[in-house]
# Entry
Amino acid sequence: MKQSLKTLLVVFTLCLLTPHMASATTYPDRMGTKLGNGMANMVTGIAEIPKAIINGNRKNGPAYAATGGFMTGMVHMVGRTLCGAADLVTFMIPTKPIITPEFVWQNFKQDTGYKGTWELLP
# Structure
């Protein structure tokens, strides 16, 4: 019970900080944004599974959602978690996020995608 409450508190705090993180313009702000993005993606990577199941059901029906949607969610969970870990390790180099959408809770109906290259922030 205590662990789920801690997780909920972390996710809630990250949701509150998201608007501030989107307006970062100075180097320390951009570093903080990337650090927060990395932590959020590491914690919420598990949400890719229900997201992929819901989107798979909406597009291809329940049979696909139970099989292909689940497997797609597992792949994206690993991808989002690893992208979050990469952002945590490289937070001192302000780059644009590799994963789209930037957070799992943004545009829940959009399928998760990945950019092929890292782009530095201006």
